[in-house]
Each structure stands twice: as structure tokens, then as C-alpha cells.
């Protein structure tokens, strides 16, 4: 038996339990219903649609920059239901952390410190791993890209030739390839200035990466679409707000920032070269909370070379354990792993909705009301209800707005909806759209003007109301007693 078997077993078990608990926790965000439905549409049609069949106000060609992710999610859901989706998420998260672990170890980081870095990356990226979204694919490809950059810095420059293939897949999975392209550009530029990368590689790698993204169903139109839509200010999306508004991400950001500072102080100028893209990501994460996970992953991988050979080769407190110690530790480890595995299995069959305070969390009775009554036509709805309505009610009800926003709606349509939601005097937009029904959160100021304008309240729940243009016989739903699990009633 190795001398350091005892501390190694304890450390590995602690890290494994944290990883399992972090990865197994899953919630359904507002886009999940739409992501799977649009993927199922691709499966049925056998192609990527270029127009939207679910909305009556969509007025721009549909550039679905996540079509491949939705295709894979639909396959997973059709094959295994919610358990299939959770398995897909766990697989992507495990692959991400496995690639990160291999990259850190390949850079010469000793195992005790490498386990600590793995924890920093896991906690920092927990926000990415929490939901089943296209960001999971971005996290995996981002880590693969960073690993290639580190390998190239160690002399394996030819690995950079895989860059266009990586970005080709990325451009069809998620728009996060823009973050990756920015990191590649900063990495290549800083290394060129430092004299550690030949100019032909510094120029060709970003160009090849960008060229790879042109291989998609929309060609160069994807670039134009993302150029016009991606920015740092999206006030209607919580995760696009500044980091200061998301307190639970402060600690992971601070841990990643401390890691950058520690590597910087240890290696000096060489570490500063690799820190350029990491620092840029850290600053951007302060402005857009969604980027915090990418900042954590980048800080661990790109700063790993500066931490090579840091710390003891042997574990602290290493000695040959007694039989009693081995038995005690073995029991504790087995118990911890059993609890963690049980938690993962218990959560696997239920993708719970967001917290009770989430404004988008679906109200089951409202969904049941719209499903159980013969309503059809045009549904003017809040954008957070759009994907849910499409999942349960399309094609007999077509929505006015949903979470896809700029991918199918012009700025005019988006702005008109936002003005309508905030209005406390004018309900004319509902008439101008010739809507048959309205489904909105009950606290919106526009509800009162709609009622004064002749709309009839046919359903009122804890969070939302449904209004009809004409009176009729409507069946009120019974309280939903089922679990708060995707896809709902």
C-alpha cells in the first residue's frame, strides 16, 4: 500500500462528492420547453426550418443558432424522457471536467493542487451545469479549446489545425463560440507580442477559427445575425445583468480572480501573457454574470502552467494508515458516495422548475385551463410564457412573443411588446394584433387597461391571468397536485 493512500482517498472522495452533488442538481429554465420542441420539429421535418410556424408576429427569417443542440436534446428526450435529458447534462458536465482535469495534469500540476483547481472550476461553472441548455456544449468546447491552446504553448503547435473543426461544431451548437473566438484572438495576439508564437500561427489560427463558423445552415448570415444581436446590455434577461446583482456568483468569481493573481505573482511576465484573455473574461463577467463560468474555467486551465510543480509531490500527513483508520475512512467514503449517488438518482427523474419566486415559473392551473378548453387562434403572451405555450398548445394557439426574441422577431415587435407589458393606460396593442386571448403575469400594469377595454377575465391564478376577447363557457381547472417537474401538466 502506498504511503499517501489515506489522504489521497479522503481528498478524492470529498472532491467526487462535491462534483456529483453539483452536477446532479438540475432545474428547468424558461427555454427548455422551446429547445426540445424546436428539436422535435427538426426531427419531424428532416431539416432545419427557415421560418417560424409557432408565432403570428414573427417577422424576420429564423436563424436558429442552437439548432444542433436542440436536435440532440430532442433525441435525448424522445429516447429517455426527463431522465434522458439529465443523463445528457451529466455526460456533458463530466466530459467538461474530465478534459479540464487532463489539461491541468498535463501542465505538470501535482495532484493535491490539481484537485483544488478542479473544485474551483466546478464551483465556478456550477451556474452553467445547473440547467439543461446550449451553454453546456459551449462549456465543453471552451475547455477543449483552452486545452489545445495550452498544448500548443508546450510545443504541440500542430494541434491548432483542429481549431476550424472545433469552431464549426461550436457555431451550430451555441453562440458562445464568440467568447471562444475572442479568447483565441487575445491568446494569439499576446503570445505574438511576447515572441512565443510565430506570426503565421498568430494570424492563421483566429482566421481558421472564424472560417469554421461559416459552415452552418445560414452561412455568413449567422455572423450578421450575431453581430447585430449579441451585446453586453439585455435588461430583460437576469443572467445578462452585472455580477453585483447575482450574489451567489461573487465567491466563485473571487476564487478565480485570486487564482489569476497567484499565478501572476509566481511566474511574472510569462503568466501575464496567458492572463490577458483570462483578465478580459473576468472584467466582462463583472458586466455580464453569464460569463462567470467561462472566467472560472479559463482561469484554471490557462493559469495551470504557472502552477506547475507548486506544492509537495507527496500528500500532506502521508503515512501508512492502520487497519482501523482504513476501515473508518472506507466506511465514511462509501457512505458519502452512496448519499451523493442517491441524490443524483433521486433527482434524475425530475427536472424541477425554478424557485417559487421565479417570474417565469409556469402556473400549472393556467396551462391546464388553456389545454382543457377549446381555445384556438392568437395568444398574446408574456415572453417568458411563450416557449411553454408553444410546447403545450401549438399549433391550435400561436403565440405573439417568446424567449427566442431577436431570432424571429424584429426590434419593432420586441419593443412593442415591452411597451405593452409596462403600459398602465393603453391596451390598444392587443387589438392591433387581433389577439383572441391574452396570458400575462397578473401583476403587470396593463391588465387593468385591458379589462377596461372590454377584455374578459376567464382565468385568474396565483401568478397569471387569462383574458378572452369574447365571453364563453370555460371549464376551470382543478388544482394541480403533481410534482413541479418538467414538462408540467
Q: What does this molecule look like?
A:
This protein has 489 residues and is mainly alpha-helical. It has two domains: 5-30 and 63-307, no CATH class; 364-468. Helices cover 58% and strands 6% of the residues. The protein contains 19 helices and seven strands. It has helices at residues 5-24, 32-45, 67-106, 111-124, 126-129, 135-153, 163-173, 177-194, 199-213, 221-229, 250-267, 269-287, 292-303, 323-348, 364-372, 383-393, 411-422, 428-432, 447-452; strands spanning 27-28, 352-353, 377-381, 397-399, 437-441, 456-460, 464-468. It has a five-stranded mixed β-sheet. Strands 1-2 form a two-stranded parallel sheet. Strand 3, helix 16 (383-393) and strand 4 form a beta-alpha-beta unit. Helix 2 crosses helix 3 (67-106) and helix 12 (269-287) packs antiparallel against helix 13. The longest helix is centred in the N-terminal third of the chain and has 40 residues, at 67-106. It is globular.
Q: Number of folding domains? A: 2
Strand content: 5-15%
What is the approximate shape?
Answer: globular
Biggest beta-sheet profile: 5 strands, mixed
Percent of residues in helices: 55-70%
Whole-Å distance between the termini?
55 Å
Q: What's the multimeric state?
A: single chain
Overall mean confidence score, pLDDT: 86
Amino acid at each position: 500500500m502506498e504511503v499517501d493512500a489515506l489522504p489521497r482517498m479522503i481528498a478524492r472522495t470529498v472532491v467526487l462528492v462535491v462534483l456529483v452533488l453539483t452536477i446532479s442538481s438540475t432545474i428547468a429554465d424558461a427555454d427548455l420547453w422551446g429547445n426540445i420542441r424546436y428539436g422535435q420539429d427538426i426531427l419531424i421535418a428532416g431539416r432545419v426550418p427557415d421560418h417560424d410556424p409557432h408565432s403570428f408576429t414573427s417577422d424576420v427569417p429564423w436563424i436558429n443558432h442552437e439548432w444542433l443542440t436542440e436536435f440532440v436534446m430532442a433525441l435525448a428526450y424522445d429516447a429517455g424522457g426527463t431522465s434522458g435529458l439529465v443523463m445528457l447534462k451529466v455526460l456533458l458536465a463530466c466530459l467538461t471536467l474530465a478534459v479540464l482535469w487532463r489539461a491541468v495534469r498535463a501542465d505538470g500540476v501535482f495532484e493535491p493542487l490539481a484537485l483544488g483547481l478542479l473544485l474551483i472550476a466546478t464551483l465556478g461553472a456550477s451556474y452553467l451545469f445547473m440547467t439543461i441548455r446550449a451553454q453546456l456544449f459551449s462549456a465543453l468546447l471552451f475547455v477543449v479549446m483552452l486545452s489545445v491552446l495550452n498544448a500548443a504553448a508546450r510545443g504541440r503547435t500542430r494541434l491548432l489545425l483542429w481549431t476550424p473543426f472545433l469552431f464549426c461544431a461550436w457555431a451550430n451548437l451555441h453562440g458562445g463560440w464568440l467568447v471562444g473566438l475572442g479568447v483565441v484572438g487575445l491568446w494569439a495576439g499576446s503570445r505574438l507580442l511576447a515572441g512565443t508564437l510565430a506570426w503565421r500561427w498568430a494570424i492563421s489560427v483566429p482566421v481558421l477559427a472564424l472560417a469554421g463558423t461559416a459552415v452552418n445552415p445560414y452561412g455568413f448570415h449567422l455572423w450578421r445575425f450575431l453581430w447585430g444581436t449579441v451585446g453586453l446590455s439585455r435588461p430583460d434577461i437576469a443572467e445578462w445583468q452585472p455580477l453585483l446583482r447575482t450574489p451567489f456568483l461573487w465567491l466563485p468569481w473571487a476564487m478565480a480572480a485570486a487564482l489569476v493573481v497567484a499565478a501572476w505573482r509566481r511566474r511574472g511576465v510569462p503568466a501575464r501573457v496567458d492572463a490577458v484573455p483570462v483578465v478580459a473574461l473576468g472584467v466582462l463577467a463583472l458586466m455580464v454574470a453569464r460569463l462567470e463560468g467561462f472566467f472560472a474555467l479559463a482561469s484554471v486551465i490557462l493559469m495551470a502552467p504557472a502552477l506547475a510543480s507548486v506544492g509537495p509531490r507527496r500528500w500532506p500527513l502521508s503515512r501508512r494508515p492502520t487497519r482501523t483508520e482504513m476501515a473508518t475512512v472506507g466506511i465514511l467514503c462509501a457512505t458519502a458516495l452512496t448519499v451523493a449517488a442517491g441524490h443524483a438518482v433521486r433527482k434524475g427523474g425530475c427536472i424541477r422548475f425554478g424557485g417559487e419566486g421565479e417570474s417565469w415559473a409556469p402556473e400549472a392551473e393556467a396551462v391546464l385551463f388553456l389545454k382543457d378548453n377549446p381555445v384556438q387562434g392568437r395568444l398574446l403572451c408574456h415572453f417568458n410564457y411563450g416557449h411553454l405555450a408553444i410546447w403545450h398548445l401549438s399549433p391550435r394557439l400561436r403565440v405573439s412573443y417568446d424567449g427566442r426574441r431577436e431570432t424571429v422577431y424584429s426590434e419593432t415587435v420586441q419593443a412593442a411588446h415591452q411597451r405593452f407589458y409596462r403600459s398602465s393606460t393603453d391596451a390598444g396593442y392587443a387589438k392591433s394584433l387581433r389577439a383572441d386571448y391574452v396570458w400575462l403575469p397578473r401583476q403587470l400594469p396593463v391588465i387593468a387597461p385591458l379589462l377596461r377595454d372590454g377584455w374578459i377575465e376567464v382565468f385568474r391564478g396565483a401568478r397569471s391571468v387569462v383574458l378572452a376577447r369574447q365571453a364563453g363557457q370555460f371549464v376551470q381547472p382543478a388544482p394541480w397536485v403533481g410534482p413541479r417537474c418538467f414538462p408540467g401538466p
